[in-house]
Amino acid sequence: MNLLSMAGVFETLKELASSGGADFSIKYLTDFTLFGQKLSITTTHISLFIVTLVLVIFAICANKCIANAKEIPGYFQNFVELIVEMLDNMVDGVMGKNAKRFVNYISAVFIFILVCNISGLFGLRAPTADYGVTLPLGLITFVIIHYNGVKKNKGKHFKALFEPVPLLFPINLIGEIAVPLSLSLRLFGNVLSGTVLMGLLYGLTPFLVQVVGIPAIAHIYCDLFSGAIQTYVFCMLTMVYVNDKIAD
User: Fold this and answer.
1) Could you give the CA distance from residue 58 to residue 9 in angstroms, rounded to a whole number?
2) Which of 41, 155, 158, 179 has the greatest number of beta carbons closer than 10 A?
3) How far apart are CA 80 and CA 50, in angstroms?
4) Which positions ≥6 away from 146 have C-beta within 8 Å?
5) For residue 5, how far is the Cα from the chain centroid?
């Protein structure tokens, strides 16, 4: 697809959104002033607040459940233990002896991104379909990668930018800068594409088709399957990048 045809597709999508035929854009809700600065509240902020609230409540309940763990666990205790064991095994399988240092961060990012990605199943606009959410995640990972690299290798961490020959420094530098961009854009692009597709399905299909459940079937792929895959890819790449910097 050339640039002209891509531009035509984006124009068509914009017209559909503005005409009310399809609803997949970020909606402005209200303004407020903080320290003299005018700030806006959008659907992304509302979705993030709901996701964060749900995760905080779940964390409190899970902590209370594990603190009073029973010898014969109930459904909720089994569910919590299953999540912890699954995430522990995933991190340990990739990071090995370094897993204990990073399992908390990887687990927190995994659960946060997964819940954000599947929030479309509950009528929310996925926060990860906003680049303002995925870019900070990529930058945080970028800082963790290089902080641990410097901590482990000291000055040798930056020396690697000039290897195997100093002439490759610009290419190596671009490769490092591309890490947070690739992480954030991959997550953002895949979630946004699912959001756009679901918006088109709901906006352009007859009500009868929606009652039959065609969009609901698409939710299984766009929100659940694709959301889980992108969560796993983000965390897997994070672990690989960190391991690469702290390897012996």
Assistant:
1) 41
2) 179
3) 21
4) 157, 176, 245
5) 29
